[in-house]
């Protein structure tokens, strides 16, 4: 029992460490993207930024977001196994957050968390090896990073990514068969898929499905998807504003940038909150996003561009229900968090008792 508790405490500490190092990249990326996209205009291919200065600001924000997931996995591994784990986990976190392999699979923040933990424990094991003194000096800078990246990278690409790619193809097929069926059920599924991994393969499957339908002139599922992308960051932001005893000062600061990310449809603004408290945050935002997506579909909302949040309101058919669906979904998530998330002092007390 003690061993099990130590394992979970190590993981919790590692996730918190990963989040604390990731936060500045989230904030910088989110604020720069929010400012830049707010000056853009909605087009068939998404939000288009015409001002060169704002485009540069957008590129800086995108760079912040590109660093966010590698930082998360890198410092999860660093917390578990020290410096030799940092570079391999950052590399594998980058790989997890970008398409790779024959199926061009991307597993997002959940994949990066898994790779961070895997690297941490693999490097811990490497550190137990009995090696000659001459080799010991090059272990942390050469042998351990190269071996870890190669072994876990191959496992990820050939064992983890392949079934995920097949699963995503199956999901697109199932959703395609639902098209024309119950609009509310389709909206529920699209909304839940959007929130479940916030930019990962399930979210991207929903995006691919809605884009394919848009090319055929069907805009309703895209409306549900674009409502749902805004709900997780907006819900987390409003929760930090209302339930201040449940969040750290760091979380409250992040809530401000998450609010702006929600307005411009960047779901990733909720990722740091999910990493720190996945068992409470993930169900709350999935339910809220599912309800928002279902309401959008039920009331004929159509988003005419492949972007989300309130920023695209001028190019939405059914503007009132677009806003209402987003608001209702967000408030449902906030309510769930209010009743499930303990105050910080209570949570610390429970941890101490364990």
Automatic annotation (TrEMBL):
The keyword Cell membrane applies. It is found in: Cell inner membrane. The keyword Cell membrane applies. It is a multi-pass membrane protein. The chain crosses the membrane at residues 21-40, 60-78, 107-126, 138-161, 181-202, 223-242, 254-274, 281-300, 320-340. It holds the Pfam family PTS_EIIC. Its main location: membrane. It comes from the Bacteria. GO terms for molecular function: carbohydrate:proton symporter activity; protein-N(PI)-phosphohistidine-sugar phosphotransferase activity; protein-phosphocysteine-sugar phosphotransferase activity. Residues 11-350 form the PTS EIIC type-2 domain. GO terms for biological process: phosphoenolpyruvate-dependent sugar phosphotransferase system. Keywords: Cell membrane, Membrane, Phosphotransferase system, Sugar transport, Transmembrane, Transmembrane helix, Transport. One of its GO terms (cellular component) is plasma membrane. This is PTS system, Fru family, IIC component. It comes from Enterococcus moraviensis ATCC BAA-383.
């Amino acid at each position: 029992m003690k061993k099990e508790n130590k394992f979970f405490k190590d993981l919790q500490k590692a996730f918190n460490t990963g989040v604390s190092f990731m936060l500045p990249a989230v904030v910088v990326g989110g604020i720069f993207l929010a400012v830049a996209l707010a000056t853009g205009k909605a087009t068939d291919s998404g939000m288009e930024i015409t001002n060169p200065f704002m485009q540069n600001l957008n590129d800086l924000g995108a760079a912040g977001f590109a660093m966010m997931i590698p930082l998360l996995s890198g410092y999860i591994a660093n917390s578990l196994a020290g410096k030799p784990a940092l570079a391999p986990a950052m590399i594998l976190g980058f790989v997890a957050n970008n398409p790779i392999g024959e199926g061009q699979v991307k597993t997002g923040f959940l994949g990066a968390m898994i790779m961070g933990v895997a690297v941490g424990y693999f490097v811990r094991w490497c550190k137990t090896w009995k090696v000659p003194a001459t080799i010991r000096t090059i272990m942390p800078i050469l042998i351990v990073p190269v071996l870890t990246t190669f072994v876990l990278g191959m496992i990820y690409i050939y064992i983890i990514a392949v079934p995920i790619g097949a699963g995503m193809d199956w999901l697109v097929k199932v959703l395609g068969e639902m098209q024309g069926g119950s609009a509310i059920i389709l909206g529920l599924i699209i909304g839940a898929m959007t929130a479940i991994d916030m930019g990962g393969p399930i979210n991207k499957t929903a995006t691919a499905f809605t884009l394919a339908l848009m090319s055929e002139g069907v805009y309703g599922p895209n409306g549900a998807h674009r409502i749902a992308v805004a709900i997780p960051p907006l819900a987390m932001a409003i929760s930090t504003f209302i339930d201040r005893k449940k969040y750290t000062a760091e979380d409250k600061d992040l809530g401000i940038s998450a609010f702006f990310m929600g307005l411009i449809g960047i779901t990733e603004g909720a990722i740091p909150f999910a990493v720190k408290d996945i068992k409470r945050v993930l169900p709350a935002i999935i339910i809220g996003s599912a309800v928002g997506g279902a309401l959008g579909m039920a009331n004929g909302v159509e988003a005419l561009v492949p972007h989300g949040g309130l920023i695209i309101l001028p190019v939405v058919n059914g503007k009132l229900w677009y806003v209402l669906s987003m608001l209702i979904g967000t408030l449902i998530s906030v309510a769930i968090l209010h009743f499930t998330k303990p105050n910080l002092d209570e949570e610390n007390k429970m941890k101490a008792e364990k």
